Amino acid sequence: MKIGTIDVGERPVFLAPMEDVTDASFRLMCKRFGADMVYTEFISSDALIRHVNKTKLKLSISAEERPVAIQLYGKDSASMAEAAQICEEANPDIIDINFGCPVKKVAGKGAGAGMLRNIPLMLQITKDVVKAVKIPVTVKTRLGWDTDHLIIVELAEQLQDCGIAALCIHGRTRSQMYTGEADWTLIRKTKENTRIHIPIIGNGDVTSDEICKNRFDTCHVDAVMVGRGSIGRPWIFREIKHYLTTGNKLPDEDFSWYLNILKEQTLQSVEQLDERRGILHIRRHLAATPLFKNIPDFKKTRVAMLRAETVDSLFSIMNSITPVSK
């Protein structure tokens, strides 16, 4: 599969862009375990053109994570085009436009999934960003604003006409946020539309190797994107790639192997930020990881782990955890 001239291989699996999750260290970790393409956190076009330092830092990418996409969001065509040019200077492989983020502080202001209520502006922004840069531009969006406006099949054609190189579809509406189950039927319908010739990437509730393979087999998407299923579990890409290649599940590693991955994430987060902020950042991964699932009477340990303020205290708690015998 290719996005423009970028070859991402057969049945590629991508790491979804996630705010406060897909920082540089986590992208590299997921890449190491087999992610075929990774995306930055969301980058605000308004903040970027105002040269907000915290936002500009998100543009930092490395050769080891390629191919990598910078994801941009905004609600104004001129600022999005200017921001796309700033992003291009950071030398990503792809610029991705976020028309899918459902959170109120983004969609409520008309950006992200808020654009699903203003399709003419969405299309104008897309055209202007495509014209502003020389590298491939892609879009990530949802099925529609709500169940009364499931517009993705028609919208995909319109976005394709704007010149995008690929389209990622999350199988929920904006109104659903992240509740309920992702509906892939319209993703499949979009892919099967004979007028669509760009790659279609499916996203939503891909939390296992079996689910990922099923989405390829039944929805015929060109690529699958993994989001929340990777939080606290970067090794999911290793499991998926093995299953796609062999048809067999990858044997489990020892508990300590997975625990060491989480420790490595912690140290990378601390190195990238500092001890206090790094530990705060890693708590989301520790809270979400399935590694501690089914450990009896774990609540007290979990609370202590999420309250730890130093690496030494956190690792001491983690080292005291006794896994469930299989």
Description:
The structure is a single chain. This protein has 326 residues and is of the alpha/beta class. The protein folds into two domains: 2-245, Aldolase class I (TIM Barrel); 255-319. Helices cover 43% and strands 14% of the residues. The chain has 14 helices and ten strands. Helix 11 (255-272) packs antiparallel against helix 12 and helix 13 runs antiparallel to helix 14 (311-319).
Reconstruct the topology from this structure:
Layout: E1 2-3, E2 6-7, E3 13-15, H1 24-32, E4 38-44, H2 45-49, H3 53-57, E5 68-73, H4 77-89, E6 94-99, H5 104-107, H6 119-132, E7 137-142, H7 152-161, E8 166-170, H8 185-192, E9 200-203, H9 209-219, E10 223-226, H10 236-246, H11 255-272, H12 275-288, H13 299-307, H14 311-319
Parallel strand pairs: 3-10, 4-5, 5-6, 6-7, 7-8, 8-9, 9-10
Antiparallel strand pairs: 1-2
| Rg estimate, integer Å | 20 Å
CATH fold field value of the largest domain: TIM Barrel
Tell me the name of the CATH homologous superfamily of the largest domain. Aldolase class I
In one word, what is the shape? Answer: globular
What structural category characterises the helix and strand content?
Answer: alpha/beta
Report the order of strands and helices. Answer: EEEHEHHEHEHHEHEHEHEHHHHH
How are the strands of the biggest sheet laid out side by side?
3-10-9-8-7-6-5-4
Going by CATH, the architecture of the largest domain would be: Alpha-Beta Barrel
What characterizes the major β-sheet? 8 strands, parallel
Question: What is the CATH C-level name of the largest domain?
Answer: Alpha Beta
Number of spatially distinct domains: 2
